[in-house]
Amino acid sequence: MRFSALILSFALLTSPVLAETTARQAGRAVGDFGAGVGEAVGQGVARSLAPLQPEWITVAPRSKEECIAESHGVLDATYMRCRNGRQEFVRFDPQGRKQVLGERAIPNR
After folding, report:
1. 98-104 and 55-59: which strand pairing?
2. Domain boundary assignment for the chain
3. Is pLDDT of 108 > 70?
4. What are residue 58's DSSP bridge partners?
């Protein structure tokens, strides 16, 4: 009888600690799962938006003949842009169409 009373007393004394530890472990598991899901969703959103981010692309200089044809035989700003080349700050929409947001000369190296 004394032995069973001792086991019962031990069980009653340790059960709150055991319950707290189990609850803490369950909370950590749920928290880790939530953090993992949030990270995966965030990375997915970043990957889906990456193609929509603007970027600088280089348009190489072209020959005199090509540039004269593009400027319709007039030596103007269009001809010089063609002849010198440029960099364009562009964004592509989901349909793949290019939208030029800005333009600059090709930087000297």
Report:
1. unpaired
2. 1-50, 54-104
3. yes
4. 87
